[in-house]
Amino acid sequence: MKILLTGGTGQVGREIIRRAGRRPLFEVVAPGRDQLELTQRASVERAVQQYAPDLVINAGAYTAVDRAEDEPVLAHTINGEAPGWLGSACAAASVPVIHFSTDYVYAGDKSGAYLETDPTAPLGVYGASKLQGERALLASGADSLILRVSWVFAGHGGNFVKTMLRLGAERDELRVVADQRGGPTYAGHIAEAALDLAARYESPRRLPWGIYHYAGAPLTSWHEFAQTILQRAFEKQLIRRVPTVQAISTRDYPTRSPRPGNSEMDCSRAESLLGLQRPDWRLGLEETLEELRV
Ligand SMILES: NC(=O)c1ccc[n+]([C@@H]2O[C@H](COP(=O)([O-])OP(=O)(O)OC[C@H]3O[C@@H](n4cnc5c(N)ncnc54)[C@H](OP(=O)(O)O)[C@@H]3O)[C@@H](O)[C@H]2O)c1
Fold it and tell me: What is the DSSP string of the chain?
């Protein structure tokens, strides 16, 4: 099965390439920006025609949440328009698309876990652009499956785990937000989920298309997540001591783009319709720290 992958250099994309390499079923082509530039409709269409894939995985995205406030056109083009262009090209070629979205499509003011049917209300440009992309892809006519993921981390790329390890090695005390809750999600788990879906699509050439939540468990806060990262990093001798982690509130840590307070996403739809078990971020953290150790 030939998969055309966008964003092959990103957190999720790299894990897809790495893990597909262990499964003989898949051949992954992951062109760089010189071959597949998501800001250019013609480039997106040409790539779909040229590579003639059986399935497309769109892991490419503009993910700089704060910078998006200053570059809204670029964010909306890459996250909002490109999925629609990809979808139209794929619809014309009868090729399905697996796409990723985010908990940032929600305002984060619900008490309790979000369901896929809950109203969306993004707080910033990034979330709005990702929501636009979901809608564009769904309207494109392509068979598409959208996984809304949250708090993504991996052993490579820029992410919270790596930031905590860097700061934890430099400082005796860190201040981390304790009033935002969500499910950290390991990019390796997202990649495995996407490849499992691709394998299931192989036969009978269909999936229950639509939007699904796929987020790590158990529910945590950035503060608790930081404590676990630093404790496990210390036990694995990645840092010399565990710094104090002071719990602060979102008010004490203003960001250019506001973040949802509650990012909890109910994942039972993906479990029951796609057979995707909710991944345990603590296992993903172990893999990440092992990768960083060598
Ligand atoms: N990171 C998170 O915490 C998070 C949370 C929720 C949802 N998500 C979603 O999960 C998916 C994967 O995210 P990620 O963390 O793996 O992203 P990432 O590490 O930031 O990687 C983004 C990828 O997109 C590519 N890209 C960016 N602009 C492009 C353009 N104009 N043309 C072609 N490629 C371009 C990048 O290529 P270059 O290397 O060339 O820049 C890179 O390969 C995205 O849909 C994201 O919105 C992420």
Answer: -EEEEE-TTSHHHHHHHHHHTT-TT-EEE---TTT--TT-HHHHHHHHHHH--SEEEE------TTGGGT-HHHHIIIIIIHHHHHHHHHHHTT--EEEEEEGGGS-S--SSPBPTTSPP--SSHHHHHHHHHHHHHHHTTS-EEEEEE-SEE-SSSS-HHHHHHHHHHH-SEEEEE-S-EE--EEHHHHHHHHHHHHHHHHTTS----EEEE---BS-EEHHHHHHHHHHHHHHTTSSSS--EEEEE-GGGS--SS---SB--B--HHHHHHH--PPPBHHHHHHHHHHHHH-
